[in-house]
Description:
Elements: E1 9-12, E2 14-15, E3 18-19, H1 23-26, E4 32-36, H2 41-49, E5 54-57, H3 62-79, E6 84-87, E7 90-93, E8 98-101, E9 104-107, H4 110-120, E10 127-128, H5 129-135, H6 145-163, E11 168-171, E12 175-178, E13 193-197, E14 200-204, H7 210-217, H8 223-229, H9 237-249, E15 254-259, E16 265-275, E17 280-287, H10 297-311, E18 317-323, H11 327-335, E19 339-350, E20 353-363, H12 364-373
Parallel strand pairs: 1-4, 4-5, 17-18
Antiparallel strand pairs: 2-3, 6-7, 7-8, 8-9, 10-12, 11-12, 13-14, 14-15, 15-16, 16-17, 18-20, 19-20
Helix pairs in contact: 4-6, 7-9
Amino acid sequence: MKQKRPDLILLDLMLPGMSGEKVPSQIQGIPIIVVSAKTDADSKVNLLLGGAVDYLTKPFDTKELLARINIRLRESMRTTQFPIYNYGELNIDETSRKISLEDKTVNLTRTEFAILKLLIQNPGQVIAKSVLLDRISLDTPDCTENSLKTHNSHLRGKLREISGKEYVESVWEIGFRWKLGFVEEKYYMNTDVIGEKDGFVIRLAQADDAVNYYEQNYCPLDKEVARLTGCKEEFSKEEVVSFFLKSLEENDRYFFLIIAPDGDIIGESVINEIDWDLRCANFRIGLYRQAERGKGIGTWATEITRDFAFEKLKLHRLELDVYSFNPRAETVYLKAGFKREGVLRDAIMDGANYADDILMSILEDEWRTLKTQR
Length: 374
């Protein structure tokens, strides 16, 4: 109880070394359901007046017990109040639904605050989407699974606005959690541009780029690009734009575009699947305009993005996959300091032929050594 506050207590009166009847009066703010073989009215009344929220006599049906637990949890979520609450450096005002940090303040919507409160009450725990929706349903009946991601994204953005930190973590296809202990300070850039050379620019992708990204790279998709990247099908404009916009929302991704002197998008450079605890990430790069290949643009973009990963994001390891039928790409990565780590033999098809999937990586210490040698 001192280390972790439960959401609810299921109390059996038959406790070793003490009387279970005394427990409800000693605990405040946590709903207690009593289960007992005692069926007399006095026992029930005394316990309910003494602090228990419900009383269930033995024997009982498990379904009934679960239903009562669910009801009490919902009531607890709705009635638990902390008008002014300090969580670490954050000052949280439930009455006005405001969060403050020093001289910065943001206002939360009703749904955002309900999500925040549930996550804070369960720090470090992954809260499944279905559970979250059920637990906040009385406060926010209009919230659906489809809109939950949007509400969470807005909440994270507002927390980031006042703190520059990521308090809430999305757990892929499961739900969300409030980070416990270590709170990741994601790197936020003062400028979108991370590299310039001979009129070429590498910059962060923006929502406004979505249509141009499709029209200049996927309409149609270059056959050689499709072969080298293992892309087996054409995608519609809606699919590409949707993927592009979704990529911008992910907390574990930095999505850069390579822009030619004429302003066209000719490629991308991506750091994704970032594990902020292990400080590891995946990397990929693609040049879509055939005329720009073989000019050193890919090598330059790889080195710029690699440096960003280690210098700005403070990563420990960067890894990638390259296919054996793309030796030019492997040469680029070797020049950038990546090392062969392993091979998945015959793991992909290149037309009618099998090809290897080569895993490559570079560590922070190797990058530092490389930088001192140049």
